[in-house]
Design brief:
By secondary structure, the protein is an all-alpha fold. 92% of the residues lie in helices and 0% in strands. It has 2 helices and no strands.
Length: 107
């Protein structure tokens, strides 16, 4: 008989736990059902602005991505120009030095 009591307690605990889990899932299920039910009842006048808003957001993201890419390209171009100016100045100095060596220091 003690085994049955133990089994009864365990089954009662299991029932309480499952009831608790079901109570927690019920509001989520009800909310999901309500969203599904009312989701199809959107007024057509509100649907078009929502679609346009979503498209505008997508375009804004795309534009922002393009601006970021352009900024990176401009930064890279700046670095390239600075390097070319540095190289040009170094080449000029080197040419002047070589001219002095060849000319015997006349200049």
């Amino acid at each position: 008989m003690s085994l049955r009591r133990g089994d009864g307690k365990a089954s009662r605990l299991d029932k309480e736990r499952s009831a608790s889990v079901m109570e927690k899932s019920k509001p989520e299920d009800k909310l999901r059902e309500l969203v599904e039910e009312f989701g199809g009842l959107i007024d057509p006048r509100h649907k078009k602005p929502a679609v346009l808003s979503k498209q505008a957001q997508e375009r804004h993201k795309k534009l922002q991505k393009n601006v970021d890419n352009l900024q990176e390209s401009i930064d890279y171009l700046r670095v390239c120009i600075k390097y070319k100016l540095f190289d040009l100045e170094a080449t000029r100095r080197e040419n002047e030095y070589l001219k002095k060596l060849l000319g015997g220091g006349k200049s």
